[in-house]
UniProtKB/TrEMBL annotation:
Pfam families: DUF4440. This is Nuclear transport factor 2 family protein. InterPro entries: DUF4440, NTF2-like_dom_sf. Residues 7-113 form the DUF4440 domain. SUPFAM superfamilies: NTF2-like. It comes from Leptospira yanagawae.
């Protein structure tokens, strides 16, 4: 059975991986069939996400997280988390509060993110 604390710990590791562009960690937790919707509506795949870290087209200057909710449904966890973030994406500045919805699924090789979305919100 999935424990809320386990998902919380993975979310905290994910934040560190995003900050440091830890492609190795991201490669293991992002499912090959990841479907993620960016704030502009663009569909992001695992490869696109990893490439943004490899090529340094995504630069995180600061990120603070506030975990709002973790729901466990059998072998799946739904996470809602807000990031207060500042950085650059494809050379364009990004700053503000963003609410993320992430879906983690227990796979044969451990937990992986299978889907998610991100929306900018008022701070």
């Amino acid at each position: 059975m999935i424990q809320t604390e386990e998902i919380h710990n993975l979310e905290m590791k994910l934040i560190e991986a995003i900050k440091t562009s830890d492609v190795s960690f991201l490669e293991t937790i992002l499912n090959d069939d990841l479907q993620f919707i960016a704030p502009n509506g663009m569909l992001i795949t695992k490869q696109m996400d990893l490439d943004s870290h490899r090529k340094k087209t995504m630069v995180v200057e600061s990120i603070n997280a506030k975990l709002e909710e973790i729901k466990i449904l059998n072998d799946t966890a739904i996470v809602i988390i807000v990031y207060q973030t500042k950085g650059k994406m494809l050379g364009n500045p990004i700053e503000g509060s963003f609410r993320y919805l992430r879906i983690w699924k227990l796979m044969p090789n451990g937990f992986q993110i299978i889907a998610g979305s991100c929306t900018q919100i008022e701070s």
